[in-house]
Each structure stands twice: as structure tokens, then as C-alpha cells.
């Protein structure tokens, strides 16, 4: 993580956080197996209603997150509990259960719970919760969706009022309240969609998505929802129309079927569900020869091409836009896309990106470049250092581009999705880390929307193996283990550095670059990275031979002890490169002396400008350099970087001294 994600805590503060997490674990263990007990429905619903009204005034709360507006002094905090697998069962294979069957600290494997929402949704920064009713009005319970709270751009709990919970997990939330907890999005299924945020007040269950609508009515309702920009409901209506058509098995309705698929493709494109946008567009093709049919098919090919382009599947996108041009010769939009694809193909082939043009296109609100990856000079394979690594497939000269890669997912500090969290991980003795929670959410969302991208993310290193490396799908939806993605993000996310004045540790910019994540660490690596928007450019710092592993430094800290601590906390390893091996041989007293001298040099640099510096400050700088040099054994440090000297050396060079 970048330096701007640093949070300074006293030992007492970190101790309180860790004690809170450990106490909660003890309470959960103590209550394991206890039977569900009734709540006062009125009191619980009133609690949710009041919390919903006051949520904008709420401050950051440990475990539950924070309201949408945080104060300058707060950061969202939560504990990382023991991971558990998402349900991989089919709904039809699960046995119905009741609220009264719930047992504390239990994953009810093999069962499904049917619930109706009877309160407003309380939306916090890292979770959402509401009150749900079972078979009778007197059976109610809190249900909390943790972190991954949205679906198709809306809060999941607001999208419906009847839900199915697959293999429910009943536990204590981080305030010690009993709750049905949802960590994995696929464990919560909307059985009845909702178009009215006040539907929870009604006793009847007739509102929302009507199951007795005809396909034509579903199409009209979907079109109305698009007009209202309620894309989640539009998607639900078109899907329901197709379901009814399929049940009817009426071949005479093929025109209507094509319309429903075509319209749903449009909605999927808006919602960034590109896999489904392509599939629906291709299903909508009439393959007719009259003018109107060609126009409709051209529209479908445009949507398929746009979706493929946004997935960086430029070859497929090229085919789709060529089909659009065949049906509509001279179409300017298709021609423009084909020109852009030609540029992307050159970028993939030779790695030459128009950097000046890219920089001109960037702004505070537009930082994602229209660019392609250049990776042909590299190969992923097993590494003797750790797991998999990235290797050169040809000789690469110093300062040459090794690879360029667009971010798989990036969250900029000025975006609403950006937020960092203070996490305490029970798997690592409640170790406290600053974690890019907003990036975690964004990666899970992208994978849920585009299952074709899952496998390449799962191939990255993470401590928790979860469901393994192969994608899993049930009931037509991808199953994502969010604990597994958490660990992948924690070990592979890149801090981007401060991008704007209003960015700090609470909303740091972070991203995930798939190919670059395979580059292993060395304090004396052979590569360096730079960013142009969300395009990462990796260059060689020396000549790299074909077959040699590409490595760069994860942490540039000059002090050995601080660097070892940071590497272990953030990435879980101790470095044993040549530099670290030599530094470890220095006595602790010598390393401490070097660190103090470097701090003196940093203070001097901060207070003294090199431009126009006179004899006295230059002499002072040279004495500092000499004192730091004396802490390095000339023989042992031969041909090794001496990081503590970097700052004062740069100052002397700027002052015109050697």
C-alpha cells in the first residue's frame, strides 16, 4: 500500500481494537449452538426505522462501518473473522427451514430460509441491515449484508422484499447483536423484486415484480423502468418476460423474444454486465434480410462489440463491429470503433502508447485510459522465489518497456466507491492493517457481473484458498468467495499514491493489475513501475536476459528493520535478497545509528534548499553523507544499493556537488 494509507495508532489504541475483536470471538464461541429466541417485532422494526433516519449522522462504528459522511478523524474499522465457504448448493436441493430452527454460530448447511423484509434498510459504509419476517408476524430477525451490499448499482436489500437465504449463517455482529450474516453475495437470492422503497410497510405480498404478467407487459414494464433509469428493475422485467416465453414454448413469439433479449442486452451494457450483454445481443439476432431486421441486428452487433471492447476482447469486438458495418455500410460509430481497435492492436504488438495524448486525456474525473496491454515480452511460470513469477521471454535493454497493463480494477480516491478500512484479522493474532475495502467491493462486483474474468483473478496468490482456482456457478449465477477475494486483494493490490488534495488514508486510490501482480519482490530488483492514469508501465532498470525473472521492490524503506516488518505485515514474507542478507549482518546498534543519521539528513533536506546553497550548508551535507557512508562496510556492500544515502546524494547533486 502507498504511504498515504498509513494510520498512526498508539499501542493503547491498537490494543483496544484487538481486544474488541478477541472479546467478540469469545462471545461467539460461548453462544455456539444456542437456539434462536424471539424478538419484540415492534422494538426491532423501530430500531431499524430510527437508524435509517439517522444514518447520515452516524459516526464510524467498529464492525458496522460508518455512515456515508465520515469525519476527518475517523476510519471504518472491522474484524476479519474465520473464513467460511459460500453455498454451492442448488436452490432446488435445499430443505426449507424456519427462523425458529436457527442456532447460534452455525452454518445451516443443506437448508434455505425464506424471509420477507419488514423494515427500511439501514445503509452504512461497510454493511447494510434490515429486519426480516419469517412465517409469522411475530417471528422477526435482523439480517446484515456485510461489505458487498450492492447489486446492479442499487442496495441489494432495497431491490426486493422477499428473499431466500442459502445455508444461513447465524452469528453475532460486531456490536454483539444476533443476526443472519451475509458475506457472499450469492448466498442471498431475491425471490420477489421490489419497485417501491416503502413496500416493507405493506402486509400483502402482491407488490413488486408481478409473476402473472404477459411477456408483452414485461417488455413494456422494462421499457418504462429504463426510461426511469431503474435499470435493475428493467433487467428483472425483461428476464421475467423471457422466463414466461420459455415456459409457453410459443415459437410464434420469436420477434418478441428477440426484442426482450435485445433490450436486456442494452440494460446489461449500462450495468457493465458485459458477458451477459454479449450473450443477449447474439441471442437477439433475427438474421433476417429485410431492412428493419438488418437495423435491429446491427444494433445487437453494436452492443456486443461495445461490451467486448470494454472487456478488452478486441478480436471479438472487431468481428462484431465488422458485422455491424456489413449490415449498415458506412456506419460512423462502427468505423470509429474499428479505428480504435487498430490502435489497440498496435499497442498489444509493440507496446508503443501515445503517452502525450494519454496525459492530455486525463483529468480529475477521467483517469481510465483507452489503451491495450502489452505483455508479449513476459511469461508467467513457477518461481524459485515464491509461487508464480513473471519472466522475460527475450533480452530487454535498460529502460526498455517490459510490459504495459491496464488495471483490472481501480478505485480512485475521489470516487464514491473509495474507502480504506482498519481491519483486525483473527487469523493473524488480530493483526491490524489498512485495507482497500472499496477496491475489494469493486473487484467482487466486477466478477459477479462478468464471470469470464473470475479465473484469472483466482489464479493470483492469496492466503485463503476458498473454493479453489476454478470458477463456480449455481442457479445461473457465479459463486464468489469474498474471503478468498479479500486475501487476493490484500496481497496483490497496488497503492497508487495521492492523486488529489482531498485524498488521505480514508479514501486512498488503489488498484489491481493482474499481470503485474505476478512480479515478485526483491530489494534490488531489475524493474520499476510508473503509472499513466490506470495504465501501469514496467521498465527495466538494467539489462534483463531472456528467461530471467522480473522483480521489483515492494517497499523502498531504507531501514532494514522497518522494511522487514512492513513486508511481513502487508505481504506475509521475509526478504532474503542479497541486500537484506548483508543488512541483517549489521548489528542492531549500527542499524539504529544509520537510521538516526538518515533522519538528520532528511531534516536538513527539509529545511535547506539546494538551489544557491552556500559553502556552509554544502559542507554540512557532505559531513552527513560521510557519516552515513561510514555505517556501510565497503567490502560487504560492494555493488549493493545504500538506501540511506539516496536523499542526501540527491540534495548534493541538485546543489551542483559531486
UniProtKB/TrEMBL annotation:
| InterPro entries with a match to the protein in the record | Gramillin-biosynth_MTr, SET_dom, SET_dom_sf, TPR-like_helical_dom_sf, TPR_rpt
Identify the Gene3D superfamilies for this entry.
Answer: SET domain (2.170.270.10), Tetratricopeptide repeat domain (1.25.40.10)
Asked whether the UniProt record includes Ribonucleoprotein among its keywords, one would answer: no
Q: Does the keyword Repeat apply?
A: no
Could you name the domain of life of the organism this protein comes from? Eukaryota
Q: Which SUPFAM superfamilies match?
A: SET domain, TPR-like
Going by the UniProt record, its keywords in alphabetical order are: TPR repeat
Each TPR repeat occupies one of these ranges, namely 298-331
Query: Where does the SET domain lie?
Result: 376-555
Classification via PROSITE patterns: SET, TPR
What's the protein name? SET domain-containing protein
Organism the protein comes from: Clonostachys byssicola
Amino acid at each position: 500500500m502507498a504511504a498515504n494509507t498509513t494510520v498512526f495508532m498508539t499501542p493503547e489504541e491498537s490494543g483496544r481494537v484487538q481486544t474488541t475483536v478477541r472479546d467478540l470471538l469469545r462471545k461467539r464461541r460461548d453462544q455456539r449452538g444456542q437456539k434462536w429466541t424471539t424478538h419484540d417485532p415492534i422494538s426491532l422494526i423501530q430500531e431499524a426505522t430510527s437508524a435509517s433516519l439517522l444514518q447520515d449522522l452516524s459516526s464510524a462504528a467498529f464492525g458496522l462501518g460508518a455512515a456515508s459522511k465520515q469525519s476527518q478523524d475517523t476510519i471504518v474499522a472491522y474484524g476479519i473473522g474465520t473464513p467460511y465457504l459460500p453455498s454451492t448448493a442448488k436452490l432446488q436441493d435445499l430443505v426449507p427451514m424456519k427462523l425458529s430452527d436457527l442456532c447460534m454460530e452455525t452454518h445451516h448447511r443443506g437448508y434455505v430460509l425464506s424471509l420477507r423484509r419488514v423494515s427500511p434498510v439501514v445503509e452504512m459504509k461497510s454493511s447494510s441491515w434490515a429486519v426480516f419476517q419469517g412465517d409469522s408476524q411475530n417471528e422477526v430477525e435482523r439480517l446484515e449484508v456485510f461489505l458487498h451490499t450492492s447489486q446492479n448499482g442499487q442496495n441489494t436489500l432495497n431491490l426486493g422484499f422477499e428473499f431466500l437465504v442459502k445455508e444461513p449463517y447465524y452469528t453475532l455482529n460486531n456490536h454483539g447483536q444476533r443476526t443472519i450474516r451475509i458475506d457472499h453475495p450469492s448466498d442471498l437470492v431475491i425471490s420477489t423484486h421490489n419497485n417501491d422503497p416503502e413496500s416493507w410497510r405493506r402486509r400483502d405480498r402482491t407488490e413488486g415484480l408481478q409473476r402473472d404478467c404477459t411477456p408483452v407487459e414485461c417488455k413494456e414494464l422494462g421499457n418504462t423502468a429504463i426510461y426511469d433509469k431503474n435499470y435493475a428493475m428493467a433487467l428483472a422485467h425483461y428476464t421475467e418476460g423471457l422466463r414466461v416465453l420459455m415456459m409457453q414454448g410459443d415459437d410464434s413469439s420469436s420477434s418478441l423474444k428477440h426484442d426482450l433479449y435485445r433490450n436486456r442486452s442494452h440494460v446489461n451494457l449500462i450495468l457493465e454486465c458485459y458477458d451477459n450483454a454479449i450473450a443477449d445481443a447474439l441471442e437477439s439476432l433475427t438474421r433476417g434480410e429485410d431492412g428493419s431486421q438488418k437495423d435491429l441486428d446491427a444494433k445487437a452487433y453494436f452492443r456486443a462489440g461495445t461490451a467486448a471492447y470494454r472487456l478488452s476482447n478486441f478480436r471479438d469486438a472487431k468481428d462484431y463491429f465488422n458485422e455491424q458495418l456489413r449490415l449498415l455500410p458506412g456506419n460512423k460509430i462502427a468505423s470509429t470503433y474499428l479505428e480504435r481497435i487498430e490502435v489497440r492492436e498496435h499497442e498489444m504488438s509493440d507496446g508503443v502508447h501515445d503517452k502525450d495524448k494519454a496525459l492530455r486525456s486525463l483529468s480529475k474525473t477521467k483517469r481510465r485510459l483507452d489503451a491495450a496491454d502489452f505483455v508479449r515480452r513476459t511469461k508467467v511460470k513457477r518461481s524459485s522465489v515464491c509461487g508464480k513469477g513473471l519472466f522475460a521471454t527475450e533480452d530487454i535493454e535498460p529502460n526498455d518497456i517490459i510490459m504495459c497493463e491496464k488495471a483490472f480494477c481501480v478505485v480512485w480516491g475521489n470516487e464514491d466507491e473509495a474507502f480504506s478500512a482498519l481491519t483486525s484479522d483473527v487469523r493473524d493474532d488480530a493483526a491490524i492493517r489498512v485495507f482497500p475495502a472499496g477496491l475489494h467491493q469493486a473487484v467482487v462486483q466486477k466478477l459477479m457481473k462478468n464471470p469470464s474474468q473470475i479465473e484469472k483473478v483466482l489464479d493470483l496468490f492469496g492466503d485463503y484458498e476458498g473454493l479453489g482456482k476454478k470458477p463456480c456457478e449455481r442457479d445461473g449465477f457465479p459463486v464468489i468467495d469474498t474471503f478468498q477475494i479479500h486475501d487476493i486483494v490484500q496481497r496483490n493490490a497496488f497503492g497508487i499514491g495521492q492523486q488529489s488534495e482531498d485524498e488521505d488514508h480514508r479514501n486512498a486510490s488503489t488498484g489491481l493489475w493482474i499481470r503485474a501482480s505476478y512480479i515478485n519482490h526483491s530489494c534490488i530488483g531489475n524493474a520499476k513501475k510508473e503509472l499513466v492514469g490506470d495504465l501501469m508501465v514496467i521498465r527495466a532498470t538494467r539489462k534483463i536476459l531472456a528467461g530471467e525473472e522480473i522483480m521489483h521492490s515492494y517497499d523502498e524503506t531504507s531501514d532494514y528493520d522497518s522494511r522487514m516488518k512492513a513486508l511481513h505485515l502487508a505481504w506475509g514474507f521475509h526478504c532474503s535478497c542479497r541486500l537484506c542478507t548483508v543488512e541483517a549482518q549489521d548489528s542492531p546498534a549500527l542499524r539504529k545509528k544509520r537510521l538516526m543519521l538518515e533522519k538528520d539528513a532528511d531534516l536538513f533536506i527539509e529545511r535547506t534548499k539546494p538551489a544557491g546553497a552556500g559553502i556552509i550548508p554544502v559542507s554540512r551535507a557532505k559531513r552527513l553523507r560521510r557519516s552515513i557512508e561510514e555505517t556501510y562496510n565497503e567490502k560487504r556492500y560492494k555493488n549493493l544499493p545504500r538506501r540511506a544515502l539516496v536523499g542526501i546524494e540527491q540534495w548534493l547533486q541538485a546543489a551542483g556537488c559531486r
